[in-house]
Amino acid sequence: MILSASRRTLTVDLGDRSYPIIIGPGTLRESASFTPYIRSRQVLIVTNETVAPLYLEILTDTLGEHYHLESVILPDGEEYKNLEILNRIFDKLLAERFDRGCTLLALGGGVVGDMTGFAAATYQRGVDFVQVPTTLLSQVDSSVGGKTGVNHALGKNMIGAFHQPRCVVADTETLNTLPDRELSAGLAEVIKYGMINDPEFFTWLEAEMDALMARDPEALAHAIERSCRDKAEVVAADEKESGQRALLNLGHTFGHAIENGMGYGEWLHGEAVGAGMCMAARFSVDLGLIPEADAQRACDLIRRAGLPVDPPPARSIDSTRIWKYWIGGRPSCSTKACRRRVSDAWATRHNSLIVGW
Length: 357
Fold this sequence. Notes:
It is a single chain. The chain is an alpha/beta fold. It has two domains: 8-177, Rossmann fold; 180-352, Dehydroquinate synthase-like, alpha domain (Up-down Bundle), CATH 1.20.1090. Helix content is 43%, strand content 17%. It is globular, with a radius of gyration of 20 Å. The model is unreliable at 322-357 (pLDDT under 50).
């Protein structure tokens, strides 16, 4: 059954650090989506050059009468998710004399959210932040769960912190301006939830993929709500990724290797994850963990979402990046136990759809 496209609220249950995920059309224009969760008058909106012309003025109009607002506009793209660009956020905070009670608002996609969250985790040893995701990928995945950070030349997201937002405000109307390629990238993470622990949702995605690709509002609202609910349950059970949360990394070991090997920004994150999930499925077949038919079913859905199902040419990637992980200070991944610790998703899906990397 598809829920209506009206506003709905979920909760990430983390005790006294629990927070809501507010989903619906027009939430960006409603001050009530924000004011209960912002505890200081000092608010810095962090956005990028693509999102700012579309939504920065809307957000400042929503919050202007309540807070002292400043903004910083970053360049757009995964290639700018680094310490050098991160310092622009700190420069603005310090120049405007923002204190420890301030709040940062991340207005944008996954890169903006990750960088803003990391700045919030480290500025004056930790301040509040709010996620305002404007892409499908960030609405269903990166804005929820508190993973923040930046990339390094030797690895993706290797510098970061767990830092939970005060709330997540996902305005589904922002998807109207999302390029088709970005929509497909977000669907990779949506498909992931069906593959790892929600077989009913996976079946629904098979039936509704054409509607999602056509941006049907009710289909998208249902996919966002179901994805956020699935992720919230996993995060509540394993916030710091000591076990179950590793399931959420399905496709990401292969995907991160693709992104790093090709150069950040060449492939969108969701494109790399889509190919990575297919690689994980095929690898699982090779290991005798799932039947070929299940892998084919997964790859067919990924392809229908407009995503690649094969990696780029091998010469484009240093394949050792997939296998080299540091465990206890030593690079080792030769044993099955080690691989289970560092695998991107030795993900067990009900009805055995996939157990893979």
